[in-house]
Design a protein that fits this description.
This protein has 331 residues and is α/β, with parallel strands linked by helices. It has 2 domains: 3-102 and 303-321, NAD(P)-binding Rossmann-like Domain (Rossmann fold, 3-Layer(aba) Sandwich); 104-294, Rossmann fold (3-Layer(aba) Sandwich). It contains 12 helices and 12 strands. Pfam families: 2-Hacid_dh, 2-Hacid_dh_C. Residues 113-299 form the D-isomer specific 2-hydroxyacid dehydrogenase NAD-binding domain.
Length: 331
Amino acid sequence: MTKILMTSVRPDEQKAINDFAEQHQIDVVTTSKPFIDDEAIAMTKGMDGLVIQQHAKVPDNAYAALKANGLKQISTRTAGVDTINVPLAHENGLKVTNVPAYSPRSVAEHALMQIFRLLRKSYAFDHRVAQNDYRWAGLQATEIHSATIGIIGVGRIGGTLAKLLKALDARVLGYDVKPRKEMDGIVEYVSKEELLQQSDVVSLHVDLNDTSKGLLTLDDFKLMKPTAGLVNASRGPVVVTQDLVTALKDQEIAAAALDTVEGEEHIFNQDHREDGLDAVPLVKELHAMDNVILTPHIAFFTNIAVQNMVEIALTDVLTILDGQSSPHEFN
């Protein structure tokens, strides 16, 4: 019977995993541990396939070990593959697959929610009400049909968000290195500088790669309206965190809703009620700000997305073990 190891498995994934295993008559061995050390590598002995999901890098010594253990692939049940050294995987005969579109709607809906929260200034009202201050002063909202929303990265997720915004009669600006013809009439493509200058909220939806790291710096924030907000539901390193902290403090922008931040692997999906956030000082600083909304990388975390991530990743493993090519192979 085919045996597949899945790491970083959460309880909410288990039903989808069990259902898939039963349907395809395979054995899926699960562990909550990420694939980051020799202990995890040792678990692949006797396995036919490997599925991971994590923010930390796969150790470089893992690839030769996987080859020695007879594996042919690594599947990540995420869109990003930045945790995998793809060239080194290929050198060891390992195909790499991802899940590029587990549910664009899940992340787009989260971004839309945060756009509403920024426009309605709910973050500031929450802070006031927590202190028993129920005044309205200075917190007049902006109705979304009167707002301009800028989307950086108009791909699957950004395009889905654009359609949702257009249905609400917002003006939608887009910046992308590859403008999509099918978005005509929905998105007005402009330069990055024009988008930053004109938008009431900027929403980030780019992949993490060499060209997107540090995409927004202090100079970019200075182009934005002082009343504008930022939504980041893509990846933390897309924004230079220190520059964002400075921009928020200096009121270059009004607020930020962050579902992902640099250094999140030390914090998100962990309980820090006892030890706090000292390990990542910049995140601690963001957490203390009353104009920042922090969520722990949960934009993807919906019923549909979780099921799709499990099923697509496992299907890719079986496809490769069967000697075929997956449409999700990363080259």
